[in-house]
Amino acid sequence: MTPPESAAANASFRHYTPMRLLEAAGALRLFSWLCAYAMLLLMAGTIAQRWVGLLVAQESYFESWMAWLGPVPLPAMRSVLALMALNLAARMTRMPLTLSKAGLWLAHLGALLLILGGVAAGAGREEGYMLIPEGNSSAAVYEYNEDRGDDFKQSFSTPIRALPFTLTLSNVVKDAHPGTEEARDYRSELVIDDGGLKLPVTLELNEPLRYRGYTFYQSSYLTSEQGEATILAVKKSGAWIYPYAATALLALGLFWHWRARRAG
């Protein structure tokens, strides 16, 4: 005979049918908890910018799968977005495909596309660094490994791509903490030369510059015998059209659902 404990365990296990698991995966409460955690993660990443800078905080909290709170690993934004995508997909499988629910379908599809578009944009992103001496122009983007230390000639030896415009460094400023050489802020005064159009801009440590799909971050500052130079981190996101298409689809779905409820 089957022991009572084993029979109870088998009965409990049978309750976890594929439909029940699908229902749990698409629960609205789960999505609400994920949104709340994402807001906390956004706050933590924003606060961390003060100590580690915008670029490092963005990579650690928003572009990674895991974030570390001391020795404790926590899900980072990519993990949260993956769970949100699974939640939305599971919920859509349980929604009836009718004209009255078309607005909800479009809204869910828009939200899912927004999440997947963010992942696709990250996967197709181009990254690199620029080294621009003061008073010089450059369009070259290099692959730079910070582990090489101060051997910048080796680090910036062969460009991996060129920008479709040039940047001229008019002035670079390093502000140190009082009484120390530790940098408190970097600031680069640049001129974008794009086919004859000259656009003066200022790039600061926690205020990136966005232009023609490229994002420039103030990464570092260099002083040598040849003078001062700025080091910029360069990123170009792939699949940039996804957020716009997804937002339009989400808005259309919500409007359709609102009209359907008023008509009903």
Give a short summary of the structure.
The chain is of the alpha+beta class and 264 residues long. The chain has helices at 4-14, 18-25, 28-52, 54-62, 77-93, 102-123, 152-155, 242-263, and strands at residues 66-69, 72-75, 126-133, 137-142, 159-176, 183-194, 197-204, 209-211, 214-224, 227-236.
Number of helices: 8
Helix and strand element order: HHHHEEHHEEHEEEEEEH
Oligomer: single chain
Strand content: 25-35%
Quick one: overall form?
A: elongated
The total number of structural domains is: 2
Main sheet attributes: strand count, strand direction, barrel closure: 4 strands, antiparallel
E-strand count: 10
The end-to-end span amounts to 58 Å
The percentage helix is: 40-55%
Global structural class:
alpha+beta
* Integer average pLDDT: 80
Radius of gyration: 25 Å
Give the spatial strand order of the biggest sheet. 3-10-9-8
Uncertain runs: 147-151
What descriptive keywords fit this protein?
alpha+beta; four-stranded antiparallel β-sheet; Tick-borne Encephalitis virus Glycoprotein, domain 1; single chain
Structural commentary:
With 264 residues, the chain is α+β, with helices and mostly antiparallel strands. The chain folds into two domains: 4-124 and 240-263, no CATH class; 126-236, Tick-borne Encephalitis virus Glycoprotein, domain 1 (Sandwich), CATH 2.60.98. The protein contains eight helices and ten strands. The chain has helices at 4-14, 18-25, 28-52, 54-62, 77-93, 102-123, 152-155, 242-263; strands at 66-69, 72-75, 126-133, 137-142, 159-176, 183-194, 197-204, 209-211, 214-224, 227-236. The strands form three sheets. The protein has a four-stranded antiparallel sheet, with no helix packed on it. The chain has a four-stranded antiparallel sheet with strand order 4-5-6-7, with no helix packed on it. β5 and β6 form a beta hairpin. α3 packs antiparallel against α5 (77-93), α5 runs antiparallel to α6 and α6 runs antiparallel to α8. The termini are far apart.
